[in-house]
Specification:
106 residues
Length: 106
């Protein structure tokens, strides 16, 4: 995972566990890599995000592009809208993400 990329990059294994999280994802979500590596990708999804094609590709494999909501660190209900691309190779899901909207705290 490119540590200096301006966009977020995440690698998720076939069980949904985060194995890499770069600086771009930290800047977008507020979650540091040491807080996320080893956690399930579903831990950072905002309520209702599980239904998106992007999330299904992260959990089940395949390729998809689209928007999804992630929880924002440091808030109870804050979210960030990202545009993500998921590609699968072997048993790993490679996710490239960029902010697609503002952070909302409801």
């Amino acid at each position: 995972v490119a540590r200096t990329a301006n966009f977020g990059q995440v690698i998720v294994d076939g069980r949904g566990k985060i194995i890499a999280w770069n600086r771009g994802m930290s800047e977008t979500t507020g979650w540091r890599a040491d807080q996320m590596i080893g956690k399930q990708i579903t831990d950072v999804l905002a309520a209702g995000a599980e239904d998106s094609a992007v999330v299904r590709a992260m959990l089940e494999g395949g390729s998809a592009s689209g928007n999804m909501l992630l929880k924002r660190a440091g808030t109870k209900t804050g979210t960030v809208l990202i545009h993500a691309h998921v590609n699968t190779a072997a048993d790993f899901r490679f996710v490239t993400a960029e902010p697609a909207g503002a952070v909302y705290t409801l």
